[in-house]
Structure formats: structure tokens, C-alpha cells
Specification:
two-stranded antiparallel ribbon, Serine Threonine Protein Phosphatase 5, Tetratricopeptide repeat, mainly alpha, about 550 residues, 4 strands
Length: about 550
């Protein structure tokens, strides 16, 4: 892996200012560089690969959480919580072990040797983010032996061990970012190569604390869970939307375009579900206010409940101008051909599978910045932690901050800002939707508002939340996710259970690492329904 040739860094050159020609002359070995490359040549590719992998696998995790469904559900059994043997559902696996892999190790080593400690810090944080996403998605993963070039088969590590390693890496990242020796961001090259924060060390430190909060908060079902530690981490993390971790895409070519953009044509058959629609149109029992029925200012919605102002920013209308969602196991078959005007458009605001976009919806554009972590998300984590700690006043404050922060985030995607602000004022004035007292706040409100704030990007966080609450199975009388229902009939191989993990990547594990996979039950037809460690009561 150290013999990295120019072609392997072509993706990086699309984002960085330095092209292949500028470092071809470092070679005395005709097969590749015989010395470590500077860390700034690694970082853009690593960041973009991790973001694209999150989007890639998020398409499928998004089926489990009902962020969206598929127009023809029989073509995608993942809608029914299946997880067939395929590479299609394991791009994060490829990113963590291959695209990032040794490249990230080399970036860290190069940063240490060249005294570019900001790259070292960012490198450790990105490694931790890769492990967090990978283990939350797959459960047991290969960690200790992952980058041993002498091995050809690799043993799996339990998720509990991976979680500890994530904490270690994040603390190392913070330590390196706090170093005052070495080169600063302007002279190290981090300012020009960092696609997320432009080399801002303080924001990277806040990101690390945010990930520590996520890591610690996953363990709400453990006796060792410490909500006060989670609150402490959040308070050291983002302070406003200005700290949001957003990765930018140029959108000029397929290789530098967002995976969710129409140019790449990856989600043309995806449609919003009835669940997310209900959270935004006032029909969900937990996020409704009878006083607001008939209060929407738009003539098209006369007589209807006030629309959450974020609805027009996030979701696609039907051709007739109304907003609808699909039932995952039904898809667009709910409507006849004569009712084509009722079928929701795709997330590029186009009918059918067209890739010719209409007015932009949310971040589903070729050059739209994609979130990896946001202030609103972290405030809802704080709100839930405070709720668990019986600090209801802290929970209420964080809840309100989270809602308002996401409102501000969504406002950037609407054209009629006056209408947005009118709806927002009515929404914020509602005691039902925006309680001013502790008595009006519920755990369900916290989690449903977090679902809204992470919809379309925070797939693994949302799926982890739903697994922590076990999809409300056995808690139907007092559900956390009010209005959410699993498909009536899950995929046959699930044996009646919803998905709790994704299978490891087929081409590497099921083809070449069979013995290790057999030890963890990876060949069982219902392996993907085995509960992950973090969600188990302990």
C-alpha cells in the first residue's frame, strides 16, 4: 500500500490544487514513490471517500429507518429489512479498509515526520470516525489485525473493543491538535487540503468531542452509561451551526459530485415515506397541535394543519403541489396510472426517474455540501442524555436549541424565506410543538425532532437510536417513535426480526475470510438480525 502511484490519488487531485504532475518527479522507483508523500496529498481523497461511503451505505440504512422507500419494493428487499450477500451494502467496509486504509496510516506517519501535527490529529479523528460508522453499521469488525500487511486472513473484534479504541484515537487526535510545536495550518497545507473545516484546528477539536459524545451516548442500555459525561462532551463540542461538519463537492464531474446528486443517478427511485411526512405536515400524533389546523398561510394548503417550515426545504411535492409519502412495502403502487399527479416526485424534484432536476430540494444536488455532524444533532443527544439523567430543564433547553438550529439550517434551502419565517413563527409559538415548560417535553418529542434533523444524512445515528429502543417492539403502548411501524411482513430469512446489523462486504469476507466469518455466525441466513452489542441491556 505504501507504493501509491499517481492513479490512486486521482480522486484527491480533483479536490486539491496539486495535480499528479507536481509529484511525479519524486520517484526513483518506476513503480511508485519510494518515500512517504506529504499528508496534504492524502487528505482530500480520504475525506471524500468517507463521505461518499456514508451516502452509499446510507441509502440502505435509510430503508431500515424509513427515511425513504423504493418505488417498486419487490426490486429492493432491503425495504423489508433484508441484507442479501452483496458488495452493494458495504461501501463503508471498502472505504475504511481500502480507500482510507493504509493511505490514512501513511498520512498520519507523514504528518509526524514532517511536524505537521494538525494532519496527525485530523488523521486520528478520521480513523475514529471510520471505526464508529463501520462498527455501528456492521457490529463486529476487523480492527486489531486490519492493517497488518503480513496477514491474508483476519479475525473479528467485538464491538466493545472497537468502542474503546475509538475513544483512544479521539483523545490522540485532540492531543495532536493542541500541540504548539510544528507547523501551523497555513504552512502545513491543512488549510488548502481540508474539505471540511479548511484547516481550523478548534473546529476539529469540537468535532472530536462531538464524536466522543456519540460514542458514549450509544450505550444508554448499559449500566455504565454516564449521561453527565455525554453532556460534558456535547458542551465541549459545537456551539452553533457555524461548527457543522459539512463536506463540499464541486459537482463538475461524476468523480467530484455528491453521491446524492442527479449527475450520479443513485436515488432516482427513492421516495420519502409517510413517516417523515407525518413529522412535518402535522399528522403525527406527537408533533401536532389542534390549534394549528387550518393555520397554514399557503393557499395550496388551505384548511390543513400548519406545515413545519422545513417541509418545503426537505421533501418533494407531488405534481399536483401537495406533499405525500409512500408506505415502504407498497411503494408507488398505492396510486393508479390515472393518479400519477399524486405520486411524490423524486428528491431532485423531478417526476418518475428523471435526472433533470427541478427546484433544489435540501442537499440533493450535485454540488451541495453534505453533513457529517451538526450542532442540532448534538443538541438532541444532549437533550436525551439530560432526560435520562432527570435534568428536565437542561433537556428542554437543548431541545429548543436543537429545533431552532435545524430550522435555521433548513432555511438555507428554501426560496420563499418570508413564507418560511411566517410558518416558523407560528410553529415556535405552539406549546405543543415547542414546549416552554418541562411538563410539555417528552422523550418522543426529543427523538422525533432528532429524526427530522438527521433525516437524509445521519442514517447510522438514526438507525443506532432505533436499535437502542429496539424499534419500540414490546413498547407499543408508549412508543418513542410514535407513528413508526415496521413492514407488516419482514423478509422471510429474517425469521420475524428487524435488521440490527449489515453483513460484512461480500467480496472480501465471504470469499476470502470465511473461517473468521463463520466464527461469528456470518453465514447464518438471519445474521443481519443479530442484535449489536451497543444496544443490548447490560
Amino acid at each position: 500500500m505504501r507504493k501509491i502511484i499517481c492513479a490512486s490519488l486521482m480522486a484527491a487531485s480533483l479536490f486539491a490544487t496539486t495535480g499528479c504532475e507536481s509529484y511525479l518527479d519524486v520517484n526513483t522507483n518506476p513503480n511508485g514513490p519510494d518515500a512517504l508523500l506529504q499528508p496534504e496529498l492524502f487528505l482530500p481523497q480520504i475525506q471524500s471517500e468517507l463521505a461518499v461511503a456514508t451516502q452509499w451505505d446510507g441509502r440502505f440504512a435509510g430503508f431500515y429507518t424509513q427515511n425513504w422507500g423504493y418505488t417498486t419494493p419487490e426490486d429492493y428487499p432491503v425495504v423489508l429489512h433484508a441484507n442479501p450477500l452483496s458488495d452493494s451494502y458495504a461501501q463503508l467496509w471498502r472505504a475504511v479498509y481500502w480507500s482510507m486504509g493504509y493511505n490514512l496510516s501513511d498520512m498520519i506517519e507523514s504528518g509526524e515526520k514532517s511536524k505537521k501535527y494538525d494532519f496527525v490529529g485530523v488523521g486520528y479523528i478520521l480513523r475514529a470516525l471510520g471505526w464508529q460508522n463501520l462498527t455501528d453499521y456492521h457490529g463486529p469488525v476487523i480492527m486489531k489485525e486490519a492493517f497488518n500487511s503480513e496477514q491474508r486472513v483476519f479475525s473479528y473484534d467485538e464491538q466493545k473493543e472497537v468502542y474503546v479504541e475509538i475513544q483512544r484515537l479521539l483523545n490522540l487526535g485532540i492531543e495532536n491538535l493542541e500541540r504548539t510545536d510544528g507547523l501551523d495550518a497555513a504552512n502545513s497545507g491543512l488549510a488548502n487540503s481540508d474539505l471540511i473545516y479548511g484547516g481550523n484546528r478548534e473546529q476539529w477539536k469540537k468535532f472530536a468531542y462531538g464524536l466522543l459524545a456519540i460514542n458514549a451516548h450509544r450505550l444508554t442500555n448499559k449500566s455504565t452509561y454516564d449521561p453527565n459525561k455525554v453532556i460534558e462532551y456535547v458542551d465541549k463540542s459545537f456551539t452553533s451551526n457555524a461548527d457543522d461538519a459539512l463536506i463540499r463537492f464541486q459537482g463538475e464531474l461524476s468523480s467530484n459530485t455528491s453521491f446524492f446528486g442527479p449527475r450520479r443517478n443513485n436515488i432516482s427511485r427513492y421516495r420519502q415515506t409517510k413517516f417523515i411526512l407525518g413529522l412535518l405536515d402535522g399528522s403525527n400524533p406527537e408533533l401536532t397541535d389542534p390549534v394549528l389546523v387550518g393555520a397554514d398561510p399557503a393557499a395550496a394548503f388551505e384548511g390543513q394543519h400548519l406545515k413545519d417550515p422545513r417541509l418545503v426545504a426537505m421533501l418533494a411535492p407531488s405534481p399536483d403541489g401537495q406533499y405525500r409519502g409512500i408506505t415502504p412495502e407498497v411503494g408507488t403502487y398505492e396510486w393508479t396510472k390515472a393518479e400519477a399527479a399524486f405520486v411524490p416526485k423524486n428528491l431532485w424534484n423531478a417526476e418518475g426517474t428523471s435526472t433533470t432536476p427541478g427546484e433544489q430540494i435540501y442537499f440533493f444536488a450535485n454540488d451541495a455540501k453534505f453533513p457529517l455532524m451538526t450542532y442540532a444533532q448534538l443538541q438532541f443527544i444532549k437533550a436525551e442524555a439530560a432526560w435520562i439523567a432527570n435534568k428536565k430543564g437542561v433537556a428542554l433547553d437543548a431541545y429548543r436549541k436543537g429545533v431552532m438550529a435545524h430550522m435555521d439550517f433548513a432555511r438555507g434551502y428554501v426560496t420563499d424565506k418570508a413564507m418560511f419565517d411566517q410558518r416558523k413563527a407560528a410553529y415556535l409559538a405552539s406549546e405543543e410543538l415547542m414546549p416552554n415548560t418541562e411538563a410539555g417535553l417528552t422523550l418522543s418529542k426529543i427523538m422525533l425532532q432528532k429524526y427530522i434533523a438527521t433525516w437524509g444524512w445521519g442514517f447510522l445515528d438514526t438507525w443506532s437510536d432505533m436499535r437502542r429502543y429496539h424499534y419500540d417492539l414490546g413498547n407499543e403502548a408508549n412508543p418513542v417513535y410514535v407513528g413508526f411501524t415496521l413492514p407488516e411482513e419482514l423478509y422471510p430469512s429474517n425469521q420475524g426480526m428487524p435488521a440490527y446489523r449489515a453483513r460484512p462486504r461480500y467480496n472480501s469476507e465471504y470469499m476470502w475470510n470465511k473461517e473468521a466469518l463463520e466464527k461469528i455466525g456470518g453465514f447464518d441466513e438471519n445474521y443481519h438480525t443479530y442484535e449489536t452489542w451497543f444496544s443490548k441491556p447490560e
